[in-house]
Amino acid sequence: MSGHSKWHNIQAKKGKTDAARAAVFTKIGRELAVAAKGNPNPDTNSKLADVIAKAKAANMPNENIKRSIAKAAGELGDKDYKELTYEGYGVGGAAVIIKTLTDNVNRTAGDIRSAMSKCGGQMGATGCVSYMFDNKGIFVIERTVALDEDIMMEYCLEAEADDYTVEDDVYEVYTTPEKWSAARKYFEDKGVTFLEAEIKMIPQNYISLDAEKLATFLKMLDKLEELDDVQDVYHNVELPDEE
After folding, report:
1. Residue-wise pLDDT tens digits, 180-199
2. Is residue 117 scored above 80 in pLDDT?
C-alpha cells in the first residue's frame, strides 16, 4: 500500500493559502457540528472524537474546533444534514467519488452535476466506480528518533492495524474503518500526534492522463472542492508531485 496516501500531496495542502485553509476548516467545522449534535462530549461520542482528531491533524485551531462544536446546539438548529456519496467519471475515464454533507439534496446533486459536466465529466449510478476503491482508515505519523520503527511496529500490532509503511520521514498506518476509532484512541493514549487522521477511499490502481486532460481534470476537482456541501473528493488519477 506504499504511497497510497500521497504524503507529498498532503504536505502541499498544508502549505496552501490562508483562503484555502479557511475553506478546509469550514468543511471540517460542519463535520464537527454534525457529529456533535445531540452529544457534544468527545469522551462519550466516539464519532466526534474521530472528527476532532481529523481537525487537529489539519492544524485547525482549538478555538475553531470549540466554536464548531458549539454550533451543534445553536446554528444547526433543526437542520437535518445528510451524509451522501456521489460517484462518477472525469475526463479519460477517471473514477471520482464525492462525499457530501447536505441539508438540500437537490441543490447538492445539481451543483455536483454542473461542476462535472462543465469539465467533461459526468455523474454515474451508485456503485459505478466505488468497487475500484478500498475504504481505509489512515494515520500519517511523523517518524522521529523517539518513535523508531521497532516502537511503531509494536504500536501497530497492539492497535490491530492492517498494515504500515515507512515513507521518508513519516509512517503511514492503515486500519479497517471498523477499527479506526479504537486505533486512534490507542495512539492518542501513547502520546502520538497525527499529521493526517481520517477514513478515506483509496484507489486500488491509479491512471495517468495527458497534460491537456490532466488540466481539465484538476479544474473539475477545484470546482467540486469549492462547493460548500462537498466534504471530500477521491479519485484514481496519478497527480504530479506539485499537485
Report:
1. 999 999 999 999 999 999 99
2. yes
Give residues with Cβ within 8 angstroms of 116, minimum separation 6: 88, 90, 96, 122, 123, 220, 224
**Rounded to whole angstroms, how far apart are CA atoms 113 and 228?**
14
- Cα 210–Cα 200–Cα 157 angle in degrees, nearest 5: 120
First to last CA, the chain: 20
Cα–Cα distance, 243 to 240 (Å, whole number): 5
Q: How confident is the model at residue 77 (pLDDT cuts 50, 70, 90)?
A: low
List the grid coordinates of 224. 467540486
Q: What is the pTM of this model?
A: 0.85
Please state the three-class secondary structure of the chain as a single string.
Answer: CCCCCCHHHHHHHHCCCHHHHHHHHHHHHHHHHHHHCCCCCCCCCHHHHHHHHHHHHCCCCHHHHHHHHHHCCCCCCCCCCEEEEEEEECHHHCEEEEEEEECCHHHHHHHHHHHHHCCCCEEECCCCCHHHEEEEEEEEEECCCCCCHHHHHHHHHHCCCCEEEEECCEEEEEECHHHHHHHHHHHHHCCCCCCEEEEEEEECCCECCCHHHHHHHHHHHHHHHCCCCEEEEEECECCCCCC
Ordered alpha helix ranges (H), 72-208: 105-117, 149-158, 177-189
